[in-house]
Amino acid sequence: MESSSSSSAGGLGSVDPQLQHFIEVETQKQRFQQLVHQMTELCWEKCMDKPGPKLDSRAEACFVNCGERFIDTSQFILNRLEQTQKSKPVFSESLPD
């Protein structure tokens, strides 16, 4: 078991730091784009009764409120997941060598 964990850790350590940073940035961009897509789809379904040439004030207010609630909810979930991750001990650290 030790060889598989050390080989995966060794594989991560051998990655070029610039490449690793580039991959992390691109992954963050992809996650952001997915969130925007989800929010757009959810709010469109919720707020658009019938598309027309202009957005009425009710639909505009609905879109603003929907977007704000989506962001608030996403932030709440991320914070909760962060707290959960911090409170859990890492399994590999608890094993004796």
UniProtKB/TrEMBL annotation:
<dbReference type="GO" id="GO:0015031">
    <property type="term" value="P:protein transport"/>
</dbReference>
<keyword id="KW-0999">Mitochondrion inner membrane</keyword>
<protein>
    <recommendedName>
        <fullName>Mitochondrial import inner membrane translocase subunit</fullName>
    </recommendedName>
</protein>
<keyword id="KW-0479">Metal-binding</keyword>
<dbReference type="InterPro" id="IPR035427">
    <property type="entry name" value="Tim10-like_dom_sf"/>
</dbReference>
<dbReference type="GO" id="GO:0072655">
    <property type="term" value="P:establishment of protein localization to mitochondrion"/>
</dbReference>
<keyword id="KW-0862">Zinc</keyword>
<dbReference type="InterPro" id="IPR004217">
    <property type="entry name" value="Tim10-like"/>
</dbReference>
<keyword id="KW-0811">Translocation</keyword>
<keyword id="KW-0143">Chaperone</keyword>
<dbReference type="GO" id="GO:0046872">
    <property type="term" value="F:metal ion binding"/>
</dbReference>
<keyword id="KW-0813">Transport</keyword>
<keyword id="KW-0472">Membrane</keyword>
<keyword id="KW-0653">Protein transport</keyword>
<dbReference type="Pfam" id="PF02953">
    <property type="entry name" value="zf-Tim10_DDP"/>
</dbReference>
<feature type="domain" description="Tim10-like">
    <location>
        <begin position="22"/>
        <end position="83"/>
    </location>
</feature>
<comment type="similarity">
    <text>Belongs to the small Tim family.</text>
</comment>
<dbReference type="GO" id="GO:0005743">
    <property type="term" value="C:mitochondrial inner membrane"/>
</dbReference>
<keyword id="KW-0496">Mitochondrion</keyword>
<comment type="subunit">
    <text>Heterohexamer.</text>
</comment>
<comment type="function">
    <text>Mitochondrial intermembrane chaperone that participates in the import and insertion of some multi-pass transmembrane proteins into the mitochondrial inner membrane. Also required for the transfer of beta-barrel precursors from the TOM complex to the sorting and assembly machinery (SAM complex) of the outer membrane. Acts as a chaperone-like protein that protects the hydrophobic precursors from aggregation and guide them through the mitochondrial intermembrane space.</text>
</comment>
<keyword id="KW-1015">Disulfide bond</keyword>
